[in-house]
Amino acid sequence: KAGVTQTPRYLIKTRGQQVTLSCSPISGHRSVSWYQQTPGQGLQFLFEYFSETQRNKGNFPGRFSGRQFSNSRSEMNVSTLELGDSALYLCASSLGVLTGNNQPQHFGDGTRLSIL
Amino acid sequence: EDKVVQSPLSLVVHEGDTVTLNCSYEVTNFRSLLWYKQEKKAPTFLFMLTSSGIEKKSGRLSSILDKKELFSILNITATQTGDSAVYLCAVEEYNNNDMRFGAGTRLTVKP
Predict the structure, then answer these.
(1) Does A25 touch chain B (CB under 8 A)?
(2) Of all residues in chain A, what percent carry a pLDDT higher than 90?
(3) Which of A6, A102, B53, B103 has the CA that lies 20 to 30 A from A114?
(4) How many CB pairs under 8 A join A and B?
């Protein structure tokens, strides 16, 4: 069974640009969560999608947005990039069943975004 | 504010040593606590703990949760250089679909 796949692996952008990151969850997983990981702040939750709906959102500005498609694949978009957006962006998937939701999230390798 | 605190932040040991990593938490509606191991890329799942006092074991790794004192420990016995990684603790809450992560413990195992 293939794991969580994130593309691209690396990205270099300049301030003011926008970027779209992609995540394909494990087959059968319907919940996709996005995290930002930086040396200073650690792993911070961005948002979670289930059945094409955003169920939960972390404390990030509106420049960070996402969506999920009917095949559970998800994209994350960051607009008007800032230097502080340089980070490893991790995607995680789980079954996400609403009742008895006791399934761990499994992570992809991440997209490393550098802002110059 | 809800938080997850891991200690120590870093640890250097020699092969064969036993280590204990700590994770304490303060969240409103605790559902589960998870341990992950992160080497260079994706955090890989180790354990999910939901009940107090029940030890989960996988090879040389084991973990236990104390819901009364609000902490968990991760033990690694007979450490190997391949155990070198950042170990992350995360807590999930009911009626919430995110995980709150601690800062991690960076473990270095020297030959």
Answers:
(1) no
(2) 78
(3) B103
(4) 51
The answer to whether residues B30 and B67 touch, using CB atoms and an 8 Å cutoff, is yes
The candidate with the shortest Cα–Cα distance to A25, out of A97, A88, A95, A99, is A95
Of B42, B96, B101, the CB nearest to A109: B42
Condensed to tens digits (0 to 9), the pLDDT of residues A52-91 reads: 999 889 989 999 999 999 999 999 999 999 999 999 999 9
CB A47 within 8 A of CB A33: yes
pLDDT of residue A109: 94
What are residue A83's phi and psi, to 5 degrees? -55, -35
**Residue B90 touches partner A, C-beta closer than 8 Å:** yes
Q: Rounded distance, CA B49 to CA B56, Å?
A: 8
**What are the backbone angles phi and psi of residue B17, rounded to the nearest 5°?**
-70, 160
Retrieve residue A54's tokens. 């955003």
Q: What tokens were used for A31?
A: 């919940």
